[in-house]
Amino acid sequence: MKNNIFKLTALVLFTFVVAVNASLAQAPKRIDFAKEGSNSLVWEQKVEANASKSFVFKATKGQVLTLSFIDDTKKGMMELGKESIEPNADPYQATISVTKDYTFTVKNNTAKKTSFRIAISLEDAKAKKK
Questions:
Q1: Which of 38, 40, 76, 130 has its CA 20 to 30 A from that of 119?
Q2: How confident is the model at residue 50 (pLDDT cuts 50, 70, 90)?
Q3: Per-residue confidence at 9, pLDDT binned at 50, 70, 90?
């Protein structure tokens, strides 16, 4: 009887730990331009083998988004919604049509941990014309 209670407790605890880890791993990291004090950021992110990381940011209608990443393996991917952004290519640029949170994901499609250098900027359309 004690053995069954122990097994049940262990199973419940294991399930809880897996669920918590899964929910934490899938939560995108928020980019807060106001907190960073700049409308453009460049940083490096390490991504585990065959894994991905997601980031979310708020953009306002009319802003111009520029997004790019450098991947030394040339096997990584970046996605912004349905858009696929090629590594080591010209930056993706678009005018925001709807004010909302946008999520982009970087994916490491290799069997080794790697790092990506990511660049993102959000400029007001008026500032871009100057």
A1: 130
A2: very high
A3: low
Give me the DSSP letters along the chain.
-HHHHHHHHHHHHHHHHHHHHHHHHHSPEEE-HHHHTSSEEEEEEEE-TTEEEEEEEEE-TT-EEEEEEEETTS--EEEETTEEE-TTSSPEEEE--S-EEEEEEEEE-SSS-EEEEEEEEEE-HHHHH-
d(CA 121, CA 117): 14
Cα(43)–Cα(36) distance, integer angstroms: 12
Q: Token digits for 104?
A: 């982009």
